[in-house]
Amino acid sequence: MKTPIRVAVTGAAGQIGYALLPRIASGALFGPDQPVILHLIEIPHDKALSALRGVAMELDDCAFPLLSGIVQTSDLDAGFKDVNWALLVGAKPRGPGMERNDLLKDNGAIFVGQGQAIAKNAAADVRVAVVGNPCNTNAWICQQAAKGVPPERFTAMTRLDQNRAQAQLAQKAGVPITDVKGTLIWGNHSATQVPDFFHATIKGKPVTEVVADHDWLKTTFISTVQKRGAAIIEARGVSSAASAANALIDHVRDLHFATPQGEWRSICVTSDGSYGVPAGLISSFPIRSDGKGGWSIVQGLELNDFLKEKIAATVKELEGEREVVKALVS
Ligand code: NAX
């Protein structure tokens, strides 16, 4: 029997948590022979902790052979104790009339505390994936606060956007989803994100050769992916949860296992200055994982003026977000 991997999930009683936890415990994350111990972290409110107890009871009732233990807590030290992965899903939602900058600051404060607790308690190999929005900037704050944890361990999620882009292209071309490769998101996980169809292929051919309607690619495709979250809220009354949980499973697997030859995945990582993104910002790039804890930004993709202009705008937004929160970690 392998040593269990300890996975902390914040916001564990929320919607994404509910869709995510059974998949982690079933083996969908690390494979069918890898036991896990779940650290479920919630805010210290009666309602949230009661909901968390219910979630843990349901996990018990699934009788997952790979689930070796459950920790339920609102204490960050206990929550992050010895964890190998910290999946930071919980965040404060934007309330009615709340300014974006207030949300940035309120959530920023949460991720300072979590970063400090991760640095103090987590396993030496800890890796952190941030989903709670604004996820790029929250990941940056957490990274700054987690003194001593190598900066490359912090990532934020654009895999849902990548999956959305892949699905849109497959539907437009009328092909199975597996025929679409290389979809890519640049920048911030926000409405300024840049879904890139120029580097994607359909049945091995450039998308621009298969989809004749280039206007659709440059306008409808991009805005559909950018606004998909809002469209789901409008249709369902609540935000995407099953697809977000699924994307987080994909994101962690992307980093845990080696990327197949010739492919990349969209992951927000700390920029080293590649593609003109200022070093230090946490921005979405084409990433390859070596399957041993290391990753690299795929180099050499040509950026045309259309992409350059859009990437500059999303980078500007990321810089603005960092400006709003940087006093929290200075
Ligand atoms: P819910 O409101 O259903 O659940 C959030 C949970 O987090 C609640 O149970 C709450 O009590 C808990 N929580 C809040 N602050 C916490 C803290 N400091 N420590 C621990 N737990 C805390 O939201 P849900 O639909 O699960 O979404 C969670 C987050 O994911 C939101 O910030 C949302 O904006 C973000 N998303 C990010 C996506 C991405 O692609 N990066 C896509 C999906 C999702 O919108």
What is the tally of helical segments? 11
What's the CATH topology label of the largest domain?
A: L-2-Hydroxyisocaproate Dehydrogenase, Chain A, domain 2
CATH class of the largest domain: Alpha Beta
CATH superfamily of the largest domain: Lactate dehydrogenase/glycoside hydrolase, family 4, C-terminal
Percentage of residues assigned to helices: 40-55%
| Global morphology | globular
Order of helices and strands: EHEHEHEHEHEHEEEEEHHHHEEEH
Task: Give structural notes.
This protein is α/β, with parallel strands linked by helices and 330 residues long. The chain has 2 domains: 152 residues, NAD(P)-binding Rossmann-like Domain (Rossmann fold), CATH 3.40.50.720; 166 residues, L-2-Hydroxyisocaproate Dehydrogenase, Chain A, domain 2 (Alpha-Beta Complex), CATH 3.90.110. The protein contains 11 helices and 14 strands. It has a 6-stranded parallel beta sheet with strand order 3-2-1-4-5-6, with helices on both faces. The protein has a 3-stranded antiparallel beta sheet with strand order 7-10-11. Strand 10 and strand 11 form a beta hairpin. The longest helix is centred in the middle third of the chain and has 22 residues. It is globular and about 55 Å long. The termini are far apart. The mean pLDDT is 96. The structure holds ligand NAX.
